[in-house]
Design a protein that fits this description.
The structure is a single chain. By secondary structure, the chain is an alpha+beta fold. It folds into two domains: 160 residues, Hypothetical Protein Pfu-838710-001; 142 residues, Nucleotidyltransferase, domain 5, CATH 3.30.420.10. The protein contains eight helices and 13 strands. Strands 1-8-7-6-2-3-4-5 form an eight-stranded antiparallel sheet. Helix 5 runs parallel beside helix 7. The longest helix is centred in the last third of the chain and has 20 residues.
């Protein structure tokens, strides 16, 4: 199965639902309550409770990374549990932290060759995510175009469908083995510093855009700037490690650190010129390791200056922090 995702500004979900019911076969309404668990702000488990109004089932998804014969593979596994309380106790026993909770309201439709899910997320305001599943890759573009045409027929303009700076029109899940040049934008932020923080990146692979973000309950601004770059480059390593990667960060700390300061830090045993230990050493070691495997061209972009993808990253960071509870 292949996924296409649209994001749309909405005024009235009930009116939109009624329009979809007239055109597509109604499947059902569901509430998905997600709780993410992990360590150091990286989610490793997701507990999802799915309710149809009559009953609720609980499914756990785990994320694991394996290296076999020099090749890294990302594997997701699923298993069922009897209750939310059972798994929370299990995760706490293992020493995992609860990172974030999200509540999604889904309205599902079927159109023969595609499955459509209208998703609103509590706390995200007037945005609707429309997720489409199709059976083969060739159907992705036509499914997107048909749905866009239908949305526009309801009076939604292109400005409603694609926000000026920060809403991605299409995210292709199948992005592995891309062979062209890649452009990446990253950003990180923190409320309180230290406090709740988040990171995000946007990767441009030809005509495709891919974005990812995450949150950490107790961190600093510089750690999140570093985590954004580490996550972005790990994505590139997993999907396009032979490409030239042009990376834009609005953090002078990151740019100066990786392009200049790190060489002396390593020679001096991770001690600064002022004879103090390098802050965030574990992040710098991880970043140095992934950079050594890739061809990265570093650039600094001024934050909040109207750059489209820097603004997109900033929005994703703020959204993660706002939704954290």
């Amino acid at each position: 199965m292949f996924e296409v995702e649209l994001k749309v500004r909405i005024d009235n979900i009930e009116e939109l639902e009624a329009s979809f019911r007239e055109k597509y076969e109604f499947v059902g309404k569901f509430v998905k309550r997600d709780i993410y668990f992990g360590k150091d702000g990286v989610d490793l488990f997701r507990l999802r409770g799915v309710s149809d109004g009559e009953s609720e089932k609980f499914v756990v998804t785990t994320k694991e990374r394996f290296r076999v014969a020099g090749i890294e593979e990302n594997v997701e596994r699923e298993f069922s549990v009897d209750s939310q309380e059972e798994f929370i106790a299990f995760a706490n026993f293992l020493g995992y932290d609860e990172l974030i909770r999200k509540v999604k309201h889904s309205i599902c439709f079927n159109n023969g060759d595609m499955f459509i899910e209208l998703v609103t997320i509590e706390g995200l305001g007037d945005f609707l995510e429309i997720e489409i599943l199709v059976s083969d890759e060739a159907s992705k573009s036509s499914a997107r175009d048909r749905l866009l045409a239908f949305i526009e027929s309801l009076g939604k303009s292109s400005d409603d469908v694609v926000s000026k700076y920060y809403v991605e029109l299409l995210r292709d899940v199948e992005v592995s083995n891309f062979s062209g040049d890649v452009v990446v934008y990253t950003d990180g932020g923190c409320l309180g510093n230290p406090g709740v923080g988040a990171w995000a990146f946007v990767a441009l692979l030809g005509d495709k855009e891919f974005s990812k973000s995450g949150v950490s309950p107790d961190t600093t601004n510089n750690k999140m700037e570093l985590q954004a770059v580490i996550s972005a480059l790990q994505f590139c390593y997993d999907n396009c490690k032979d490409s030239l990667i042009t990376l834009y960060t609005d953090s002078k700390y990151v740019q100066n650190g990786i392009c200049s300061w790190i060489h002396n830090w390593k020679r001096n045993g991770w001690i600064t010129a002022s004879k103090s230990p390098v802050k965030n050493r574990d992040y710098w070691i991880e970043l140095d390791s992934i950079v050594s495997k890739l061809n990265v061209k570093w650039n600094w972009v001024k934050g909040h200056s109207g750059d489209k993808y820097n603004e997109m990253c900033d929005f994703l960071v703020k959204k993660e922090m706002k939704n954290f509870k």
